[in-house]
Amino acid sequence: MSQATLERPAKEPTRTRRWRTTRRATALSAYGEPWLWLASGALALALAMIAALVLLILVRGFGTFWPSELLRIERKGAPALLGEVTKEELVTRPAADGMPERTERRRMLRTGNYDLTGHHFEWVWDSEVEREARPEWALAVERTAWGRFHGEPVALVAGERVLAEQPSEILARLDDELARAIEGREARHRLEVEEVGAVHHAMEVERLTLRHLEAEGGDAAQRAASIERTAELERQYEALQRRLAELDVENGRTVLRMRAPDGATKDLALVDVVRAYPANALDWSAKLGVYLSRWWEFLTDVPREANSEGGVFPAIFGTVVMTLIMSLVVVPFGVLAALYLREYAKAGALVSIVRICVNNLAGVPSIVFGVFGLGFFCMILGTSIDELLFADRLPNPTYGKGGLLWASLTLALLTLPVVIVATEEAIAAVPNSMREGSYGCGATKGQTILRIVLPRALPGIMTGMILAIARGAGEVAPLMLVGAVKLAPQLAVDGTAPFVHPERSFLHLGFHVFDLGFQSQNSEAAKPMVYTTTLLLIGIVVTLNLTAIWIRSQLRKKYAANPF
Amino acid sequence: MPTATKAPMPPTSPERLPPTGRDSAPRVYDAVARGERFTTAMHEAVLDERHVLSIRDFELWYGEKKALYGITMPITAGKITALIGPSGCGKSTLLRCVNRLNDLVDGVRIAGDMQLNGDSIYAKGVDVIELRKRIGMVFQKPNPFPMSIFENVVYSLRIDGIREKDLLHEVCEKSLKGAGLWDEVKDRLKDSALNLSGGQQQRLCIARAIAAEPEVLLLDEPCSALDPIATGRIEELMNELKGHYSILIVTHNMQQAARTSDYTAFMYLGRLVEYGPTNEIFRVPRLKETEDYVTGRFG
């Protein structure tokens, strides 16, 4: 070592300069306060936006089903209207028809009576109004078809016999008659679903058997027997159809005769009535009753009127089942992948590249996953399954189309990166001393992973699952391609063998929101349902997450490290 | 100074030890610094015993860096042998080589061999899993597994697939009694082991280690994370275990080595410097370096 490198060259005196000059006060930016304000402001803004969004959904979502009063408006030169005021706004109207430019209020009335007028809603300018009233006996009737009917009850008629003519009398008897009508409707529904459905199923089986026999060129006797059985089934089917027709006549006997606001009378068969209430005569508790009964219907019934009325039970079912299947698939899959990355793979460039790819996978637009799911699961896998197992049903696809299973698998792929990343972190957080302790006891790598690493990482894995559920349950775009539909007549689980039908298409709450808000013909009526459905979707995601969080906290209690 | 390299003579010829021994200036370090060959000052007493473990010319590299230099060291059966030395001298590395935990570290290369009761540890085809079952190990920081106290103790039986409840309970009780923990935890065997105090956790780890009836028990600074009372408890325990188990302990605490061990090995820079009965090492060490270290005049 030479001397020269040890000694620094002498500094030139001109370059030495005092860099620290005397300051009067510390600069404002050096203090923490501006940063504190900036950071807290950002958080406050984020919270405010979230709170506003949640509040909007809560208020609108919970408000949808509250029954409001029926307003009768008599207009100049136009038929009278009877309906709920759903919207109110001030509009500046340009000068026209000799009127100066002016600001005027207009109200949107939900009039119902679509079968008579062809409108669900009607705008009313204040200048058009001649007289307003809240008729005491105005009756709001919700029907299984044609939407609502607003009017005043005239009579309750059973066949030829008039049961009641006074509004108060009609209302008094309506509940009993309605209950009877609902019984009739359910009896018909049962007949249709169970018996007709069973015959249908048997006919389909018979058709496939016959096709099979023909394809194999089986003996004539068997074919004849099969044809005979088919004929027998067809006779049964016709008998059932006759019974259904009889029931329909029987059910249709009791009608509620109503007078529409424009004076026309209309007979409403009670069997088609879901709910009827005198909107202006309800006290608070009766309103609550209507409100709760609507919620109950919403949660437990099937949709009607192009999804804008009725319930969303199939959508709840579809969402929950899809999310559960997705979790069941993605968690083991992701955990195994993460285990390999953390425990088995030798750290190196390749593992880093794989890790980066997994992380980037989380950023791929979800619709891309949808396209992949459609191409791979539905087209390739599904078609192959059809050819192998359901060849006799072709060309009708069984698995070769969108369905609950394929949607779940697509979402599992979509959420896989989340689970892998969370699990990797959880596994990395397991102290090495635990692994060494296990090896020291003579455990193999597999035993160590299974008995020490995984249990310890379980809370972290649950975190991954929670994130996956949150991401998966709210996803809509890919579902449109792989199985979510507007209308699914059958649930994925039902009474026909083999009872579980993962190949069936399904309803999904997220898709339901999209469909209601933007694809519905009667979008004005569907709008409140958008909020309610959104509220429900959020509620389900929160419930699923809370369950997972609760399980995680139980696991933490069991496995958490004690820092003594 | 050519004599410095031969200062401690091979233990087989004690009479040829240079008389300058402990009173001379520390020359071993200089020799080591020059990279010269160096032989352990081995006290004859350690050679007369029955050995449970014998380490022979053991060397180890972490990648390019050599960490252990030609260590030859017999471990006496049924006694406590302490490994002392400054940080980074290779004590823990040597200990972890006994049950081949260093196999798990990337880039480790070894030469030489160890024998456990006559069976080679590093020969080709040795079943490492079976080997580790014959050796118990307790670590620096208590590392109870995230499961119940009972499951912790019988872990080594569980991984062998033993399910007989009676046997498991018997072993659990015996091991916990052996580790002096039975009275404290007998009523809450189903509780999580993570709720125990640090000292209890460490005794639980000892119970776990002795549950498999190991031929040798390795303790890697078992008291460094414990308070003096818990430390005293562990030391008592070691005394109780002695005789039945052969214990090899790494410690930073000179008093602990002096109090508890029967034999002491002083290591420095990856070499075994001096090895002999504890009272000789602490009272009449043959090397000046050892004396400096055990009296605190090191460096």
Please, what is the average pLDDT of chain B?
83
Overall average pLDDT of chain A: 84
CATH domain class of the domain at 39-122 and 249-299 in chain B:
Alpha Beta
Count of separate DSSP helical elements of chain B: 12
Structural commentary:
The complex is a heterodimer of chains A (564) and B (299). Chain A has 564 residues and is an alpha+beta fold. Chain A folds into 3 domains: 71-134; 156-286; 333-559, MetI-like (MetI-like fold, Orthogonal Bundle), CATH 1.10.3720.10. Chain A is built from 15 helices and 13 strands. In chain A, helix 7 runs antiparallel to helix 12 (445-473), helix 9 (366-389) crosses helix 10 (404-428) and helix 10 packs across helix 12. Chain A is flat, with a radius of gyration of 34 Å. Chain B has helices spanning 28-33, 91-98, 128-133, 149-153, 155-158, 165-178, 182-185, 198-211, 228-241, 254-260, 278-283, 288-294; strands at residues 41-42, 51-62, 65-76, 80-84, 108-116, 119-120, 135-138, 216-220, 246-250, 263-268, 271-277. The model of chain B is unreliable at 1-21 (pLDDT under 50). Classes of the chains: A alpha+beta (564), B alpha/beta (299).
